[in-house]
Amino acid sequence: MAQIGVRVLQRQTQQVNHDRFAIELDHVRKSYGPDGTGEIYADLHFQLLRGTFVALEGPIGSGKTTMLNMFAGLERPSAGTITVYGQDITKMDEDSLAVYRAKMIGLVPQVQTLIPELTVCQNVELPLLFARVQRDDRRRRVDEVMARVGIRGEAERVVGTLSVGERQMVSFARALVNDPPILLLDEPTEALDPLMSEVVLGLLRGDNMTAGKTIFVTTHDRRVTELARRTLRVRKKIP
Ligand code: ADP
Ligand code: MG
User: Fold this and answer.
1) How many Cα atoms are found within 13 Å in the side-chain-facing hemisphere of 147?
2) Sign of dihedral through CA atoms 145, 124, 73, 189?
3) Residues near 26 by Cβ (< 8 Å), separated by ≥ 6?
4) Of 112, 124, 100, which Cα lies nearest the Cα of 175?
5) Is the CB of 69 under 6 A from ligand 1?
């Protein structure tokens, strides 16, 4: 596999005060191949402030999904540490990572991970079941989030019968239902029509569902980067 080196061009220099940061990367390296081949990131060292909205732009194959997955604890860095709200997630075992994801992360992946046999509201409810939220509370929260995302009319439809864009909105509702402090969105407006994009952009602008959250979005969409407080760019290293 050809070596792909990528670096983040824009870095933030802040006085170190860990309480201010949502995500801190300390000399993170990531390669998929053995012995450092297939290198995606050579040395990532930056911090994201809590409660900010940061976009990540870059060409296809530059490592955007990889970075998002490392923040979600779905991929481990090859070296270095990632600290999220004060916890070093690179030292966690798989069980602790599952708890971390359930409590801290709302993820809207690029490739849909909904359960196609279940209905929309059953899919949205899943994180609340994992978190052992009481039944009445689950109903209320599922209703509220589906209304906000504009899919309450589809509540009883089986997800396997929905369009790609409709599934994206269900994925959004599922990410928000647990009220996590961090939202990780992988190219969230890619498959959406103008109307649905407006709903997503509205969420990114901030309201009672998203206010105060740390939002990290990979995107090629100018409308998204214009809303972001900060835009990181990755590029393929010139060989
Ligand atoms: P992007 O999201 O920016 O399109 P990705 O993070 O998905 O890029 O992938 C970056 C590079 O890493 C790509 O060249 C991809 O083929 C490679 N890659 C991603 N996941 C794996 C994997 N599990 N094993 C090997 N290579 C991978
Ligand atoms: Mg990707």
Assistant:
1) 8
2) negative
3) 45, 80, 81, 82, 83
4) 124
5) no
| CA–CA dist 145, 150 (Å, integer) | 8
CA–centroid distance, 4 to ligand 2, in Å, is 15
Is the distance from the beta carbon of residue 109 to the nearest atom of ligand 1 less than 6 Å?
A: no
- Tens of pLDDT along 175-222? 999 999 999 999 999 888 898 899 899 989 988 889 999 999 999 999
Helix-, strand-, coil-residue percentages of the chain, each rounded to 5: 40, 25, 35
- The residue count of the chain comes to 239
Surrounding residues of ion ligand 2, Cβ less than 5 A? 64-65, 110
Which residue ranges form the domains of the chain, and what is each CATH number?
A: 6-233 (3.40.50.300)
CB 210 near ligand 1, within 6 Å: no
